[in-house]
Structures are given as C-alpha cells and as structure tokens.
Amino acid sequence: MTDQIATVPTPNALAARLVRAGWLWTIVNSVLSIVIFLALWEALIRLFDVPVWLVPKPSDFLGRFLVDYPEILRNALATSVTLAVGFALGIVIAVPLALLMVSVAAFERGLYPIIVFLNIMPKTVIGPILIIWFGVSPMVSVLVVFLMCFFPILVDSMLGFRAVDPRLQYITRSMGATPWQAFRYVRLPASMGHIFAGLRIGIVKAVEGVIIAEFIGSSQGLGFMIMRASSFMNMELLFCGLVAVAVVALIFNALLATSERIMMPWVRPR
C-alpha cells in the first residue's frame, strides 16, 4: 500500500498563482466591460437612428481595426512608449521628492508653492512653449505626460510617508535597525497604499497628457491619428483611435494593478 503525500504549494508558488489569477480576472473584467459598453452603444445608435457622419455604430468602425491595423498598431505603440517613459519619469522623481519634502520641512515650504503653480498652469499653454524649446519631438510628449502625472503622485506619496506612526520608527531604531532598514521594512510598506492611490490617479492623468501632447505637436501616436482623421472627417478611423486609446489605458491600469498585488501582498484579496 503506497502512501500518497499531498503537495502543499510553497508561498512563492501560491503568490504566483494569485497574481496570475488576478491578472486573468483583470483582463476578463476589462474585456467584458468593453463588450457590454459597445453593445449598448450599438443598440442606442440603432434605436435613435443616429447618422454615421455624426456618431458611427461600433459595427461601422470596428472593421477598420482589421483594415488599418498596421497604422493603428504603429501609433498605439508610439503612444504606449511615450506614456510609459513619462509615467516612469514621474514616479522616479515624485516619490523620492515626496520623501525629501516630508523629511525636511524647509524643502516643502520652498518647493510646494512652485509645484502647485506649475500644476495650475494649463498644459495646452506649456505644450507650445516646450515645442519652441525642443521642437516637434517625442521629448515634448514625454514632458507633458510627466507634468500631468507628477502632482497626484507627489501629493499622495507625501500623505503616505506622513501617515506612518513615528513610534514605529523609534521601535525599529531601538531594536538596532539602520535608517535604511527602518525605511525598507516599516516606512515604505506602510505608505505603499497611498503611493499606489496616487499612481492610479496619475496613470489616468498621464493618458490625458499623452493625447493632449500628440494633439499639440507630434508626428505619431494615437492623438496624432485622431487629429488627422478629424481633419478629413474620417469618423470611422477617428473612433477607432478613441477605442485604441481606451485599450491602451486599460492595459496600463491592468499592469499597475498587477504591480500593486506583487508589491503589496498583505492586502491581496483571497
């Protein structure tokens, strides 16, 4: 009689399974939401008999994805690269700056009014100035994306670093932890919830920023494709561009949600 030994998954394997399940559920949920939205769109347009030149039905323009997929894919990749670079630049600068401003009050008093002033300025005004400085180049789009997402990431990161109970830091230091260990194992994990809240807002602002930048001055990207389609009254291609922008935004939101599950396993749903 042979004994059958039940295999218990290791913590790493269990975490990998949960991440995959969360990633798959995010994709399925996003696809279902898009399908339901497009179905309601189709039904309402048919019900009210809206002309194609005003608002096309999904059945009128979804076929253009197959016909014009090289152009749509090329512009979607250009938009995604710009979005990723600008958003990453916002994270790399905003999070350490938030920690510095929270740790040193003089920096906050001196820098915060300037940051608020720059955030209040309309990006449609800053865009032409950047074009004068850098010309019509991807650098302009990256900087506009950075300016759009920088402020919400900074503010929420500051709230997160301030939310940590200072007594926890005293306890860790009294137990012999170095300042880096106290930050790595106490302060940073305790502030991750606020930081990811800022990232969720920042990615939405970043998508807005990349489209605004491609409207103002660009020779590639979904915003450029939408502007060119609108100038020729090509409503089918225009709405294809809008749907492609939504898909890019959903992909980045899914990547952000997956990163949150990986970096914050203690709040992962069962």
How does the SSE layout of this entry go?
Layout: H1 11-48, H2 58-61, H3 64-67, H4 69-103, H5 105-120, H6 123-134, H7 138-162, H8 166-174, H9 179-216, H10 222-231, H11 235-263
Helix pairs in contact: 1-11, 4-5, 4-7, 4-9, 4-10, 4-11, 6-7, 6-9, 7-9, 8-9, 9-10, 9-11, 10-11
Structure description:
The longest helix has 38 residues, at 11-48. The protein has helices at residues 11-48, 58-61, 64-67, 69-103, 105-120, 123-134, 138-162, 166-174, 179-216, 222-231, 235-263. It is built from 11 helices and no strands. The two termini are 37 Å apart. It is mostly helical and 270 residues long. Helices cover 81% and strands 0% of the residues. α7 (138-162) runs antiparallel to α9 (179-216) and α9 runs parallel beside α10. The protein is globular. The protein folds into 2 domains: 10-50; 62-267, MetI-like fold, CATH 1.10.3720.
Descriptive keywords:
MetI-like fold, 270 residues, 2 domains, single chain, disordered N terminus, mainly alpha, 11 helices, 81% helix
Unreliable spans: 1-9
Q: What does the overall shape look like?
A: globular
What top-tier CATH class of the largest domain fits best?
Mainly Alpha
CATH architecture group name of the largest domain: Orthogonal Bundle
The secondary-structure element order is HHHHHHHHHHH
Alpha-beta content class: mainly alpha
Largest sheet: none
Strand tally is 0
Within CATH, the superfamily of the largest domain carries the name MetI-like
Please state the CA-atom Rg, rounded to the nearest Å.
23 Å
How many domains comprise the coordinates?
2
Mean pLDDT: 83
Number of helices: 11
Query: How far is the N terminus from the C terminus?
Result: 37 Å
CATH topology of the largest domain: MetI-like fold
User: Roughly how much helix do the residues carry, as a percent range?
Assistant: over 70%
Strand content: under 5%
